[in-house]
Amino acid sequence: MILSAAAFGLIVGGLLGLVGGGGSILAVPALVYGVGLPLAAAIPTSLVVVGASSAVAVLPRLRSGVNWRLALIIGAAGTVTAYLGAMVNRLLDPKILLLAFAAIMVFAGIRMLMPSKTAGGACALPEGGVNWRSCLPKAIATGAVVGFLTGLLGVGGGFLIVPALTLVLGLPMAVTVGTSLVIIVISSAAGFAAHLGDLQIDWAVTAAFAGTAMVASLAAGRIGSRIPDKALKRGFGILVLVIAAYVAVQALLS
Q1: How many structural domains is the chain composed of?
Q2: Higher pLDDT, 201 or 194
Q3: Average pLDDT, stretch 139-167?
Q4: C-alpha to C-alpha distance for 209 and 176, rounded to whole angstroms
Q5: Contact at 8 Å (CB) between 45 and 206?
Q6: In terms of residue numbers, what domain contains 56?
Q7: C-alpha distances in Å from residue 246, one per residue of 14, 98, 135, 243
Q8: Of 12, 21, 18, the residue nearest 156 (C-alpha)
């Protein structure tokens, strides 16, 4: 169990470091099907793993790869609506939720693969700077929607945050990755706090998974900061489509 956790930690951490997402949607299935944890223990464990590895992955991007104001605004807005999404989650059929999630991911993946027609946006003007009059409402709305969907669907925070930052707010991919990682740290901490009342966690497995994930995310973060925006965006789009297909198949076969 410990070795399996360490092996999967390398994959989850590598994805987070490279593209700023992908950890949460892979961590829970890896812990349940690969490591053998019950779902009640896998969810808080994944939050610890993803939060810790995201915090490490952002270190190589601290100087110029994070828009801190946007990260805090979106993270705060998403934290509030995530609880509402979690409440709605309990009322809906899991199969419908998974299919809805797959549909959202297909849309986001296709948009990420399409060439950008314009440079910049309200939150990343072509000449530099931010038009906060236009950006602030979009940032709050983006955080609220992403937080609600993350709470509703249970996984996929990074897969929703990265397309939102690039497609809605117009951030370049290099800044999107670092900003997404900070938002994931905030949302992971909030999610873990929500589970403290009935916490079920195997700390040995968590340490093994989180330890290798942090090492991999740091290494991948250093590599990812040197990869061109276009290549990162294309790779992320393809990864989203692959995961969307897997989620859809699992939902239909369940």
Answers
A1: 1
A2: 201
A3: 80
A4: 25
A5: yes
A6: 2-253
A7: 20, 10, 34, 5
A8: 21
